[in-house]
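=== RUN LOG ===
request id: a7f3
mode: sequence -> structure
chains: 1
length: 327
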Amino acid sequence: MQTEILGINEKSLNLAKNIILSGRTVVFPTETVYGLGANAYDEFAVESIFNIKGRPNDNPLIAHVHKDYDISELVSYVPEYAKKLAKAFLPGPLTMVYKSRGTVCPAVSCGLDTLAIRIPSHNGAQSFLRKVGVPIAAPSANISKHVSPTSAEHVYNDLKGRVELILDGGSCSGGIESTVLDCTGDVPIILRSGLISREMIEDKIGVCRVHSPKAGERVLSPGMKYRHYTPDCATMLCADVEEALKAYEELTDKEYVYFMCEDGAARKLCGKNILNLGKTDIEIAANLYAKLREGEKKARLIIGILPEMRDGIMAGVINRFIKACGN
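=== RESULT ===
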C-alpha cells in the first residue's frame, strides 16, 4: 500500500471522506497527537485500527466528532457538570466518557457500555470531521506502545505502507494526549491525566477525583493499562540530576547516552548530550514525544530526569514520562 501525506484542503478532505466511507482508515491531526481514524459505525473498519497498530483489543478507542455534532445520538445522558466542562473546555483536549446508546460498533469501546467522546480544537481535525460527517474512532497514529506522533513525519515513520492517507496539519501544539474524564457518575473522575488538569476542572465545577486502578478491573480509557510511549532504544528513569549523573558515571560506554530533561537540569549537565524539553509546563508537554523520537535516532540510552514541576498539566507529563522511561 502506498502512503500519501497531503496538506489539508478541499481535495484531500474529499479523498479522506471517500476512504472513510469505504471502510478504510485515515490519519488526521489534532491539537494533542495525530489520530488513526475509522468510521465508528463500521465494525470492520474499527477492527482494522487494532490490526494496523498491533493494539490490544481490550484497550478502548475514543470517538471524535466536530463541535456542532449532537452527541445525544451517541450517549444516553450528559450530567450538568459535564455540560459546564464542555462549555469551558471544548473544543479542546478533554475526552469525556458517558453511558453509550450503543449506536457505534462495540469494538470502539471493547464491549463496554460506555463511550469516550472527544471534540478536538485543531482546525484541520474540525474540517475533517465535518467533511466525513460520522463519528471517527481513533487512537494515536503509531505502532502500539511506541512514542505517540506529533507530526505527519512521525506517523509516516511508523505506519508507512499500512495507511493510505495522512492529513498533514503541522506539528501538534499540545504534545500529550487529552485528559480522559469519567462522566458516568455523580462526580467526574480523571482516568488519564492530560492538558486539562484536575485543578482546571475543579475550578469550574468544584470537585474532581482521580481514578485509582484496581487489580483485574477492565480499563475504561486508553492509556490506563499498558506500557506506552516507549522509544526504540534503551531508557533509564532518574529522579534528579544527581541520580542521573551517578548512573551515567557507572556506564562503560558513554558516547551515545543522552539526558532528556527540562531546561534547568540541562544547564547543570554542561558538555553532555542533551534532549532539552524546555522551561515551562506547556513547552515540556509539547516537546516530550518529539524529543523521545529524536532521542531514539541518536541514542543507545536515554536517561530521563523527572521534571521538578508536578502540578497542573505536569501530572499528565509525568505519567507519560514514567511510562516512556520507567521499567
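=== NOTES ===
The chain is about 30% helix and 20% strand.
The radius of gyration is 20 Å.
=== END ===
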